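Assess this:
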Amino acid sequence: MWNVFAATFAIAQLSPGDLHQSHAKLEGLSNCTKCHSSGAQIDLGKCLDCHKLLKQRIDANKGLHARPDYSDCVHCHNDHHGRDFEMVFWKEGQDNFDHDLTGYRLEEKHAELKCRDCHKPANIADPQPLLNQDKNLERTFLGLQQACLTCHADEHRGQLAEDCLKCHTYSGWKPANRFDHDKAKFRLTGLHRDVKCVDCHKEERDNRTADDPTFARFTGIAFQNCTNC
């Protein structure tokens, strides 16, 4: 009994408080050096020993954590304030975070979204690496890709390239002003230039969803003879 009391007393004297629930497994005197070096300083290298996914992004010079002014973990994160303490310090508030710092600028409609409109489990392409590190998919900001189809459905059903911005812009999604029909297999000449897209590219139905049951056919259209149309 005395040993238990002595150990509890020692922890109370040395630890400034309980760790956050995500670090709870590191509680106890024997684990202090997993985060701290001599002099009780946080060792940033030890942070990355556990946060391997962040280390990979930093080594690749990607994202917020690769920026020199955000290389110090305690700039935004603190601990020993209890199991439910908010681990992320948002200087201007989460909703006012400057997303440009991540290397991905939010433009037009994207700038109107809330963080969790995009950062949610359904949009994480490969959740397993995050789960392997005990990440809470409901809370993490990792795992998203910049490709449009990560969050958006494929309106063209795999007919066209996945780089939507080759044809579309953020400010003018429709019409696709960047698309040049002269680069297609059938060049528009004469009166063909005045024909509406839907006159040749007919809608087809696949009932993928109730909100989006149709799509336009862009490939496999016969055009070798005038009588095809």
